[in-house]
Hints:
The chain is an all-beta fold. It has strands spanning about 5-10, 20-25, 30-35, 40-45, 75, 95, 115-120, 135-145, 150-155, 165-170, 175, 185, 190-195, 200-205, 215-220, 225-230, 235-240, 250-255, 270-285, 290-300.
Amino acid sequence: MAAAAPWLExxxxxxxxxxxxxxxxxxxxxxxxxxxxxxxxxxxNARGEELLFVSERANWxxxxxxxxxxxxxxxxxxxxYGGLEDHGFARTLLWxxxxxxxxxxxxxPTNGKAFVDLILDRxxxxxxxxxxxxxxxxxxxxLGPTGDLLMLARVRNVNIxxxxxxxxxxxxxxxxxxxxxxxxxxxxxxxxxxDYLQHRRRYTEGANPVTFQNEVDRxxxxxxxxxxxxxxxxxxxxxxHKNAYLPEVVVYNPWxxxxxxxxMGDEEYRRMxxxxxxxxxxxxxxxxxxxxxxxxxxxxxxx
Length: 303
């Protein structure tokens, strides 16, 4: 008897338009991706337990609001200006399914994986402090048979005026944890970082894993390509694998400042941590007709 195959489902939103894609494995793993923002909003293990943080106050209705859940994509900015545009426009626009009809890049094989391809190739006309570039931002999301969640992003410069494309990028990953005080991160030891809470001053992490006793908002520089986040209370480790084109790792937990965040519960900081593969202190420059690609793969293990 042939083994069951992975599959995907389309879920409709308003007016019967496809609003989300669900990837499923016969082993029970699943992931859900919104076309709004190209955002992964759910990643569940074989027992149906949610592995990503979803705020109880997340705004699911009104656009162009952001959704505090899962893995928003920050492009073409990160933490540069104030307001809604602080992390770019990719997370507040409607993406579309990508047929790859005009794509000449040879992508990795998808054997045994459920996957979807999305594309964003427009920007808001009123987006300030970034030229009216022509670009193609493609995203492939794959769910493997053992639950690995791979996100491969590619940005192509299709400017016809010869202008280079300069941007920042982040997989802004909200992980669910049982208790932030019982959570630690390994792989960032002795790594330099920019502290956004200290006027972007630079420090160096100590010899021990990163732990949490108060608010943290940092970008670690020139990081290793494998980082682990361990929830000691749940006895669970999530491993983040990335490539060198995402040289930084951002770590964030608002702690008591969560009370000042409208779409986050006052005590929800206890159940989340952002650990994200990123290029935010290193600007990416892509010349016309060329393409940049960065990936993040999440894997989970209970012990």
